Structure formats: structure tokens, C-alpha cells
Amino acid sequence: MPEQAYLAIAGSVAMHVAWNLLVRHQGVQTRMLWWALGLHSATLGLWGLLALASEARWGWELTGLLLVSASANVLYFLTLNRAYEHASVALVYPIVRSSPLLIGVWGVLFFGESLGVPAWGAMGVSVAGLLLLAATAWRKDGFAALPLALAAALATSVYSLSDKAATAYLPTFGSLVGFVTVGYTASFVALTLQMRIKHGIWRPQRAPRLPHLLIAGASIGLAYALVIHAMRDLPAAVVVTFTNAGIVIAGILSMTLFRERAHWRMRLAGIAVICLGLALLAANR
Questions:
Q1: Rounded to a whole number, what is the largest CA-CA distance in the chain?
Q2: What percentage of the chain exceeds 70 in pLDDT?
Q3: Torsion of CA 194, 200, 203, 208, to 10 degrees
Q4: For 175, which of 57, 131, 170, 252 could close a Cys bridge (C-beta 3.0–4.6 Å)?
């Protein structure tokens, strides 16, 4: 694995763990996703948009990829937000993050990528661990959340491939942040309209604590920009699989720091399987 891509993935995982733990422990009424997307768009996003406008290699190709990515991001956040209204993050998010296999299929079909049998096997093991982790939180409400989580996984596979293709036209990290910001700002607007239509309000009923908001707002956009940066050197499916290390870290922190001990044996088994898949994938690089 190229050293630069490795560092980008490590940074992304750290930020990913930070904002996902905050989303997980803020509650539905806070709607942390809405706050984080809005803060990103109003702060770091402005810098990114300026860089995107001035530093990207603009053409019909980049414009088309931007539209595809932004649309897939909107679908992702809308379905993810709705899924969280029906079931817990512990159930929904591992299912959503099981997208690497689908990303790999799209990469082979549309981009001519060749992952090799060991990589496919390693990703399959990792996804099996994710599904085992999700099973520990399964309740009857999971039936309502499942199609929404699967739709979010599909959206993830679409924007991951369009984002990888866009790296050819985004030479700087700032332009990557701007590319992400377009999708995130569109998603913020879509979440606001969804909240207004469904609940009759323009903003969540509760606001998060300022330190939590600052961490989430700073992390959510930079984390994914680092993911796209790593895709310059690695297949998209491989990068997304490696970023699932964040779920392992978040799971361990939830059981230790936050003392979530329900089904801990099965959760540890799922974490162990994910780690095995990641180790096999790393050995294959």
C-alpha cells in the first residue's frame, strides 16, 4: 500500500470514529448529521468550494461526476437519516458499510479494475463480520430500517466510484474538499426539507453541545476527502474496506468507554471477523 494512501486512510478512520460516535450518542431529536453537515458547509466547505472553483480541471466529465456524486450523497443521507428513525445506529450502520463488495463489482464492470481472488475473499470476510455485528442489534424494527440501510449502501457504492473517477480532475486536497462539499451541502438542504415535510420543523428540536458540534463538523467532510485522496492510488473497494477499521474502533470504545455490554460476546466475534478480513486484505496489498 502506498504510504500516502495509508496515512490518508488512518486519518480518515480517526475522524470517522469521532463523528460517528457523536451521532450515535446524541439521540434522534438532536439529528447530529444535520448539524455536522451544516457546520461543514458553512466553514471548511467554503474554503473547499473556492479551491474547487479555481484548482479543478473543469470539463463535462467533472461536471457529470459531480452531479452523480451529489445525487448519490443526497440519497445516502436521506435514507440513512430515515433508517436511524426506525432502528439503532448499531444495526443500521454496519449494513450500510457492507458496500465494498458492490463497489468492487461496479469497479470491475465500469472501470476495468482487477482486485484478484484474495482481495475478494478478504472483503467478503470483512463484510461477514459487519453483518454479524449488525445482527447483535436486530429487533423487530429492523424490518422497517433494512431497505433504507440497503439503499444507503447502494448510494455509497455509486458515489464511491464517481468520486474515484473525479480524482483525475481534482489535483489538490482543497479541491477534493470542495467536491465533497457540493454533495454535503445538497444533502443538508435535502435533510432540512425532509425534516420540514415530515415533522413540520426547520431545525432539530435539540442542539448538540458546542464541542461535540465542532468535532463532528470538522471531521465529517475532511474524513471523506481523505478517503477520496486514498482512492488516487488504490481501488475504491479496497479503500472503503480499510476504512471499516473505524467500526472496529468505535465498537471497542462503545463496549469499554460507554459500557455498552449487551451481546458483547457476539459483538466481539463480529469485530474479530472484521479484523481478520482487514488483515487478509492488508497482506494481499
A1: 52
A2: 96
A3: -100
A4: 170
Orientation of helix 89-96 relative to helix 3-26, angle to 10°:
150
Predicted local confidence at residue 258, as pLDDT: 65
Distance CA 170, CA 136 (A): 40
Q: How many CA atoms lie within 13 A of 23 on its CB side?
A: 28
User: Could you write out the three-class secondary structure of 78-110?
Assistant: HHHHHHHHHCCHHHHHHHHCCCHHHHHHHHHHH
pLDDT digits (tens, 9 = 90+) for 131-165: 998 888 787 777 888 999 999 999 999 999 999 99
Which of 240, 265, 254, 272 minimizes the C-alpha distance to 128? 272
Query: Could you write out the DSSP letters of every residue in 169-226?
Result: G--SHHHHHHHHHHHHHHHHHHHHHHHHHHHS-SS-SS---HHHHHHHHHHHHHHHHH
Dump pLDDT digits (tens) for 156-182. Answer: 999 999 999 999 999 999 999 999 999
DSSP structural state of residue 266: H
